[in-house]
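Structure tokens please, single chain.
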Amino acid sequence: MATLPSLTELAAPVYFFSDAHLGAVLIPDAKEQEARLGRFLDMVSANGRTLVLAGDLFDFWYEWKYVIPKQPFQVLCRIRRLVEQGIAVHYLAGNHDFRLRGFLESGVGMQIHSDALPASISGQPVFIYHGDGVLARDHGYRFLKKVLRNRAAQRVFSWLHPDMAMRLARGTSVTSRTIIKSDPNDDLEYLSRARALFAEGYRGVVMGHTHRPVEHTEDGCSYVNLGDWIIHYTFGLHDGSRLSLRRLDE
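Here you go.
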């Protein structure tokens, strides 16, 4: 068993969700999505101590020096109120989160993680990550990710007027939607990755990215794929004893 890295303590109950893709043109009903998110955040407010957003809350997130996208404003205000209430909010950058320059931290109060979040919940080691770039065939994407997050490339993109940049981002996002191209056969590879993490000593593994909710338990360890907030409206919950997958209004 490998030695685990330093773990971030997360107070239970811990709620997890990912892949809302706020602002995406393929959202069937944006107002209904926002209303459901509101009900979920009310649940977190009433019962939770920690909220983990495991990436792609936004369909495109890019912070200019003086400008941020306006689409998720109401949801960010709700999350800010959770922080003011004393609930810790962690955000893991997904593959649609291209440039985070400090606003989500200073303006909203989130704790930002550019990659994975190895955590401890009630003494149980839990590995949390978005899930992009994990598949063996993702070598092209892994290279593209380095380019998109390269400071020089981001500086060039920042020279575009925000309206033009957002229009360009929305257009390319439609052609690369995970919800369209996601392959159910990939679940076995993600499960294999979870088992490797179990072997390292983690009791739980949480990820998003694929938009397919999955809950798998073996030998006292749990793997949860959070699904999405476009079709499934699923989320993860660690109540201090166990990790499970839930559905809104279930």
